[in-house]
Amino acid sequence: MNILNNIKIPKKNEEFKLLLEHKNIKIMRIVSSHKLQPQEYIQDEDEWVLILKGRATLIVESKKIKLSKGDTLFIPAKSRHKIKKVKKGTVWLAIHIF
């Protein structure tokens, strides 16, 4: 499987594809539209993200973080975070650790 094949850019929000769920991890591919509904996340699990294509600006615990292709970010459980801005067609790899 090639993670960059069969990508459909949603007209709004994001498309989530579960790639693997095993024991205490869940790995997802996320494809972002540039039209996102403002949403703040506070997750019970840790999350590590990698930008495979595109770029995004996040706010994590009031800190602005810019990510582009190849950049990674670890978001600890219970951290307030949201996507402030994202380029249409940005592809993320997200690993949730329970």
Written description of the protein model:
This protein is mainly β. The chain has a domain at 14-55 and 65-79 and 88-97: Jelly Rolls, CATH 2.60.120. It is 0% helix and 56% strand. It is built from no helices and eight strands. It has strands at residues 14-22, 25-32, 46-53, 55-60, 63-68, 72-75, 81-86, 90-97. Strands 1-2-8-3-6 form a five-stranded antiparallel beta sheet, with no helix packed on it. The protein is globular, with a radius of gyration of 13 Å. The mean pLDDT is 97.
The second-level CATH architecture of the domain at 14-55 and 65-79 and 88-97 is Sandwich
Q: Rough shape?
A: globular
The largest pleated sheet is described as:
5 strands, antiparallel
Question: Helix count?
Answer: 0
Q: Can you tell me the CATH superfamily of the domain at 14-55 and 65-79 and 88-97? A: Jelly Rolls
Look at the structure and give the mean pLDDT.
97
Spell out the helices and strands N to C.
EEEEEEEE
| CATH topology label of the domain at 14-55 and 65-79 and 88-97 | Jelly Rolls
Query: Separation of termini?
Result: 25 Å
The first-level CATH class name of the domain at 14-55 and 65-79 and 88-97: Mainly Beta
Whole-number radius of gyration? 13 Å
- Point out poorly predicted stretches: none
Number of strands: 8
Structural class: mainly beta
Q: Please give the share of residues in helix.
A: under 10%
Quick structural summary:
By secondary structure, the chain is mostly beta strands.
Question: What's the arrangement of secondary structure elements?
Answer:
Elements: E1 14-22, E2 25-32, E3 46-53, E4 55-60, E5 63-68, E6 72-75, E7 81-86, E8 90-97
Antiparallel strand pairs: 1-2, 2-8, 3-6, 3-8, 4-5, 4-7
